[in-house]
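[job 4471] stage=fold_predict status=RUNNING
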Amino acid sequence: MATFLYKMGRFAFRRRPFVALAWIALLVLAGVGAASASTATSSSFSIPGTEAQKAFDLLDERFPGAAADGATARVVFKAPEGERMTDPGHKAEVEKVVTGLRSGSDQVASVVDPYAGKAVSRDGTTAYTQVSYKVSGMELTDETRDALVAAGDEARDAGLTVEIGGDALQAVPETGSGEIIGVAVAAVVLVITFGSLVAAGLPLLTAIIGVGIGVSTITALANVLDLGSTTSTLAMMIGLAVGIDYALFIVSRYRAELAEGREPEDAAGRAVGTAGSAVVFAGLTVVIALVGLAVVNIPMLTKMGFAAAGTVVIAVLIALTLVPALLGFAGKKVFGRKARERQGQDGGEAAKPNMGTRWARFVLRRPVAVLLTAVVGLGVVAVPAASLEMGLPDDGSQPVSTTQRKAYDLLSDGFGPGSNGPLMVVVDVDEAERPKEAVSRVTDVVKGMDGVAATVPGPLNKAGDTSVVTVVPKDRPSSEGTEELVRSIRGAGADLKSDTGAEVLVTGATAMNIDFSQKMNDALLPYLALVVGLAFLLLMLVFRSVLVPLKAALGFLLSVVAALGAVVAVFQWGWLADLFGVEQTGPVMSMMPIFMVGVVFGLAMDYEVFLVTRMREAYVHGERPGQAVVTGFRHGARVVTAAAVIMIAVFAGFIGSSESMVKMIGFGLAIAVFFDAFVVRMAIVPAVLALLGKKAWWLPRWLDRALPNVDVEGEQLRKELGDDAAEDERELVRA
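[job 4471] inference complete, writing structure tokens
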């Protein structure tokens, strides 16, 4: 592989105008496709194999046009102190709002009058109207949302308190500031790392081109492939991070080759042949992690994973072709002016050991102490993960200043916490002998269960084979009590089926969230086994070792568990909540563990491959195991540090989002990369390699023969280029 990539790098260097124009043409083509495509809405959300999804599908079949899984909104009214919502003046204002909502948008399916629907609290101070839409919250137009928000303005002017809850106000989280912050920090870090504006600008430019092509392609195909508007967020986040990192690796190696006296074209070829090999395999680990999301069997996550993986592939191809092409334009300007003058004087870099060298030597002197300190430290941080509670955020987790949270609190005070997440018990009486009696029986059984505040049986559909019983829990939607109630109703379904012939299915937004969380929990171990297993085989192929990939996988698991512990401490327990702008603590988002495993594993392997490949390269070329570790850190520590800081900056930029989910994802990924790069890769890896010595590179002979030699460290390339012979001549001269 190294030889092939060497030739590719030289070709791109020589044909740089053609290569650069080809990528610019792709960017323009993707941009034109994105500009001409219709605006994306959202990917249709479904959870195959769950009872909640089965019930929704049944409702779509039995109640055509009802849009059972469409968006909902609750417009909550509260009378001024000492007055009641049943007062004639307030009642008239509410009826105006109801009329306005019905005529405000053609996306509205139904609006329930609070007085006809018995949605007035017992003390008469609070009332609410339920608005159902034909489409999901992400598919609502801005005009529909504006009409919803404006509906209560007149009632506010009349003295009523009006707040709006529900997923109808759900909007695509605005991204942009996070990326801007990340790019700004990346620029500063790159300038400090390279000491050259040209070298610093190359990774930024190529990463932006790659992200532009990837996101534009996703936008162009969003409606055709049902990708949705949220898919590009993950692709942008991952594409920007890996795009900068991969280009950074190539540019850094190019500078090192120039410093050894190579001609620019040869240096570009060698950089792509060696660091490019690491980029290819690092990219493959990221792709495996993202594509592996298909194991969860949630179409939305599968599409997000494939789209983000496509952006990573683009980043790899750009690093292997566009980066060496741009290096051809830059030449030796990748060094700062002072560095170029110094090179001209002494012909190479200063002999003074850099920080990476000094740190590696320190670890080699005290490997046990460093290893124990790192492992114990991460273990302590991971302790809160034992108390992990997972769920999906609802309006109760919104900041207290938002109208959704205010509506949530008004409903809780007036009607009880469970009114914010009623359950839909679908009763299929197609095989029941007495349909109405079966529905009545189901209602009575559910009404007598612990945790039920109220039940409201609905009429049978036109065909007389299906009914929906609305169940209001006593507890809030995201509580353990409500989850236990859902399990109890489903558990009673078998007995009700045998007694009445009716099939009972529980659905609704609350039940859907519960099923989603359960599905994510069930998929975590299979996903972890698949991703880590495939990556283990890949790393074994790269490093020709059994213990190095095993150490890489175990170190990754330690960093992920520690990151989950930090997430629990901040977002569930509320530690340092003010510092990170967490206004409301609660359960950790249910997709967080599997999301962190997928994304962080792929990114963490970047550092592992780049850092340890350089060690393997030095070892293969004759250095002692300890000296190979020092060599790897001398050449790679500064680059890996810069790459990690850049990636942390990109993810940390999302912590400032007002959306709790985006904030949690940004914090979790940033802290996980910090732990993995600076504790696992910089401390645990050299300590373990120091303790293992030559055993670290052990591979059974039968396995060595079975595995193809991909020559990531460039041993075959060095032979073809005559480097070994040249080195022997230099040794003879020295002798």
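[job 4471] summary: Residues 346-350, 728-735 have pLDDT under 50 and may be disordered.
[job 4471] exit 0
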